[in-house]
Design a protein that fits this description.
three-stranded antiparallel beta sheet, about 15% strand, 2 domains, about 60% helix
């Protein structure tokens, strides 16, 4: 789905992409879709800024509720993965393939959703009130993103109702963002996100090189870069979700996190498989480094293609995010 077209700017999108909320020149457009991934039907609702009398934003669940269920799923399916790999006979590939096909993807998805839940925050309900009705905006269902969207909407309402008494409540909210608006065009790019992009790009290049050059030092550098890049990546994502950030930068941060988690999960499965075939790899702290240094020769074609694809993807996303973020910061007002 496009993020903008003609004079419309997308304010929010539902989890499965069927419903969305758009900011128009003089009205708010709510596209209410029915379906999963692909909408089976759409209903268009328009609310003129000058007719909106109020907005309601209320938290409906605590952060730990969703995190608990995703963490439980991660523990269950991650444990199944570990049991299947630990009970695998050396050299036997059937169990390894079965692990990669079922419990591993579910455990990986649970980990991604667990981290996402911690970043986007608790769920909420967002409603707008006009003289005729009260409408719930279902795409605005997470507290931090909904607050950010309501700030944008409040500015449009204050501008449209500047000559009306009812606008007084919104004018204060819009004025609170006035100083920030004077300094930059309504967006900010987290510095931690730029650091994460750079570190992850380096980790991707080192990982791709490691498949063709067997070096323990190179393997250690790639592992450290991947681990070090996680902290600024999470901090950058948290900042991008809680504050106004370019949608393109925020999307690349999410993609960077997903690729990093997939690389980490694939590395764990690879190490388990290699350690079962060669127990010497479990001795000392240099065991995982040695295993990763020999990934190009020990892992076979499937692991080679896996690490090559996701390492290059990690590098490409990091480079694109770094260049895009720097461009946004250069165009910001002093």
């Amino acid at each position: 789905m496009k993020k903008a077209f003609d004079q419309y700017e997308r304010l929010a999108r539902g989890t499965f992409g069927c419903s969305s909320v758009w900011l128009g020149p003089d009205h708010l457009l709510y596209v209410k879709g029915n379906g999963v991934f692909l909408p089976f039907g759409e209903e268009y609702k328009r609310f003129r800024y000058r007719d909106i009398q109020g907005t309601v934003l209320a938290r409906t669940s605590w952060l730990w509720v969703g995190a608990f269920f995703y963490g439980l799923s991660l523990s269950v399916f991650g444990g199944v993965c570990a049991l299947m790999l630990l009970n695998r006979d050396p050299g036997e590939s059937g169990t390894l393939i079965a692990t990669l096909l079922f419990p591993f993807p579910v455990a990986l998805l649970s980990l991604i959703l667990f981290v996402r839940q911690l970043i986007v925050g608790p769920r909420c309900v967002c409603e707008i009130q006009t003289r005729l009705k009260c409408e719930r905006l279902r795409p605005l269902n997470h507290l931090h993103g909904a607050r950010r969207a309501m700030e944008k909407l409040a500015e449009r309402i204050a501008e449209a109702q500047s000559g009306l008494a009812v606008a007084a409540g919104y004018a204060d909210l819009a004025a609170a963002a006035g100083e920030a608006e004077a300094r930059r065009p309504g967006v900010r790019v987290p510095v931690s996100g730029l650091i994460a992009f750079g570190v992850m790009a380096l980790a991707g290049l080192l990982g791709a090189a490691l498949l063709h050059v067997e070096s323990a030092a190179l393997a250690l550098a790639a592992i450290l870069c991947l681990m070090v890049g996680v902290a600024p990546l999470l901090a950058g994502l948290a900042g991008a979700v809680r504050h106004r950030s370019p949608d393109s930068v925020r999307g690349l941060l999410w993609a960077q996190l997903a690729v990093a988690i997939v690389l980490f999960g694939g590395g764990v499965v690879y190490y388990f498989a290699m350690a079962i075939d060669d127990p010497a790899l479990t001795l000392g702290l240099d065991g995982p480094v040695t295993a990763m240094a020999r990934a190009g020769s020990l892992g076979g074609l499937p692991f080679y293609l896996f690490f090559l694809f996701f390492s290059l993807a990690n590098a490409a996303i990091g480079a694109a995010g770094l260049l895009l973020g720097l461009r946004w910061r250069r165009t910001a007002k002093p």
